[in-house]
Amino acid sequence: MIHLSVAIGRFFEALLFAVLRVAGMVTGVVLLIALGGGLLFLAARFLLARGRP
């Protein structure tokens, strides 16, 4: 009976770490997209402002 409890505990631990890994990857991708969008916005703003007399 103790072995079953350990197996269930390890299963839920692995499940938790898998969820956290996926959530971390999603967060990283969202942050990279936001950073890239911000850089593109700043570059476009700089180029448009430079073209004005």
Quick overview:
The chain has 53 residues and is mainly alpha-helical.
Strand fraction equals under 5%
The general outline is rod-shaped
Instruction: Return the average pLDDT rounded to an integer.
Output: 92
Helix content: over 70%
Order of helices and strands: H
The main β sheet shows up as: none
If you had to describe this structure to a student in words, what would you say it looks like?
By secondary structure, this protein is mostly helical. It contains one helix and no strands. The protein has one helix spanning 2-51.
Compile the SSE list and pairings.
Blueprint: H1 2-51
Features:
mainly alpha; 53 residues; rod-shaped
